[in-house]
Specification:
mainly alpha, two-stranded antiparallel ribbon, 2 strands
Length: 254
């Protein structure tokens, strides 16, 4: 009797860990190489263990053969990867805004290692990514990512056929919205760049003797950074609203 209970609990823990661990592998912030692999593993196991009493009743019975078990775990990993990719798409507006701001300010040739994406990116992109992840965790918005995983058991039942069409459509809509939000976040700097460069072009035509590049570049950097500092709270607020709204359809009402 005890052996059957233990095997059932281990089976349920593995299923929960498969979905949760796959999602945490891609969650912004937690997926960074700056976070130790052992810490991510232990955190996923701890959260799966805490969720075991509340989710064990929603799991199917243990399959009789190993192949069915492999397919079941593969389906859980697929659902987890979907939510992981979804959160990465939801944070994409910061990358788009950072690239647009870099072009507008004139700092496109300054590169750094982005601690969030683990890729070489523009200095302002890495700066905005770091602030965005910090704001997500400080405001407890990251709880929505874990809540979406828990509530997903009511939408995507383990062992049932996966709605790959719905997955692809949801990701496409989310990517489209993220692109639009990214350009909206950078809109003040884009307007500044167009206005300032137009003024420099007019000055160059009126006074050809003036070296507009040497005169305008410091002003462009200082002006752009000043506008970015002024708009940064609104940018992060708008990003948090977009991030929360993107996860809202997967949360249980109430």
């Amino acid at each position: 009797m005890l052996k059957e209970i233990l095997s059932t609990d281990v089976y349920a823990l593995i299923l929960i860990f498969a979905r949760l661990g796959a999602a945490m592998m891609l969650f912004p912030g937690l997926s960074s190489a700056a976070v130790f692999t052992r810490f991510r593993l232990l955190l996923a196991l701890a959260i799966a263990f805490l969720l075991l009493p509340s989710l064990a009743g929603q799991l199917p019975r243990m399959p009789p053969d190993p192949m069915s078990m492999v397919l079941l775990i593969g389906g859980e990993v697929t659902v987890g990867l979907f939510f992981g990719v979804l959160t990465r798409v939801l944070i994409m507006p910061i990358d788009i805004a950072g690239s647009a701001v870099g072009f507008a300010v004139g700092l496109t040739n300054m590169f750094t290692n982005d601690v969030v994406t683990q890729e070489q990116s523009q200095l302002l992109t890495g700066f905005l990514n770091l602030i965005a992840i910090s704001v997500v965790f400080v405001t407890d918005t990251h709880h929505l990512m874990f809540q979406a995983i828990v509530d997903s058991y009511a939408l995507f039942l383990p062992g049932q056929p996966l709605p790959f069409d719905d997955f692809s459509q949801a990701l496409m809509r989310c990517a489209s919205d993220s692109m639009m939000v990214g350009f909206k976040l950078a809109a003040p700097l884009i307007v500044f760049a167009v206005t300032f460069n137009s003024a420099l072009a007019l000055l160059n035509r009126l006074v050809p003797q003036v070296q507009v590049f040497f005169v305008g570049m410091p002003v462009q950097i200082l002006g752009g950074m000043a506008i970015l500092a002024f708009c940064l709270p609104s940018i992060m607020s708008w990003f948090l609203r977009h991030f929360s709204d993107g996860l809202q359809p997967f949360l249980a009402p109430g």
